[in-house]
Each structure stands twice: as structure tokens, then as C-alpha cells.
Amino acid sequence: MSDTLKNVRTVSRILGWVCLIGVVFEICLVPLIWHVDGWIDTSASQMTISLEELRALSGWQKYAVMASMMLPTLVMAYGLWRLRKMFLSFAENHVFQLAPIAHLKAFSVALMAQTLIKPISGALTSVLATITRPEGERVLSIGLSNAEASTLFLGGLLLVIAWVLGEATRIEDENRSFV
């Protein structure tokens, strides 16, 4: 086995674990924001309403807001899970095969979906959090940044690379069948 393949296997094992940590973090992020002081300071740019407003919510409203905040994080958790599966395939020396390519496609679609869902989720969160306020005090807040455009571009790039790898794998399989 070449040194490059050994490096691919080693780094892929490490990145598989990093992705697993990312999945757990994504799933725990929203509850941590709600229940652990200090987490909101690092996430304030992503919030459309204040922590005090979130903690003041109760009943259906609290759970509806939490669910709307969880939408993009669950999509990204799924994407990271698929990325992890790709890295684990690489670690088992399954490099130019359809399974890891399918995982890369799924991750890229999840990345783009999460990016598109995030501003919608933020708007829904702001509406749900302020819907019980008197008229004139309700809020619809949508946040967009250059980061979303960059992430969409990256997701599209990864999707095209996955398609190209899939086509290369198909052609190699076809050429092998002629021999």
C-alpha cells in the first residue's frame, strides 16, 4: 500500500471521529444555548431573539421555538453523519467506489439544505417567539450574510466533485468489464 493511501486511511479515521463529535455537538447545541449560561455569547450572531426572551417562553411556544431552531442543526447533523460514513469507507480502503461517493453527495446536499433552511428557521423562530405579543410588538427577523453564499458555493462544488467522481468510477468499471 502506498504512503498516500496509508495517509488517507489514517486521516480518514481521525476525521470520522471528528464528524461524530460534530454530530453530537450539532444535536446538543440548541439545548446548550437554552440551558447553559455563556453558550449564547458565542452564538449571538446566529440568534434572532435574545436569550432572556427565549428563557421567558413557556408551554407550546417554548417547544415550537426550540423545534424551529433545531431544524438546521438536525440537517447538518445528518450531513456530518454521512460525511463520517464516507471517511470510514476511506479508512477501509474503499476509495473510488460508489458508496463513499454517495455519502459525499448526501453531505453536499445537506450542507446546501442547511444553509437555505437556516434563515427560514431564524425567521420562524422570531415569529414563534413573539407571536403572543400585542400587535406592533411582533417580530419577523431574517438574517443573511456572505457566509451563506460561500457555504452554498462550497456545497455546490462538493456536489459537482461527487458527480465527477461517480462518473469516473462508472467509466473505470465499464473499462474493466471490457478486459
Automatic annotation (TrEMBL):
UniProt xrefs under Pfam families: DUF2975
TM annotation in the entry: 14-34, 63-83, 95-117, 149-166
Superkingdom, natural source: Bacteria
Coiled-coil region list: none
UniProt keyword terms in alphabetical order: Membrane, Transmembrane, Transmembrane helix
Protein known as: DUF2975 domain-containing protein
Provenance organism: Thalassospira permensis NBRC 106175
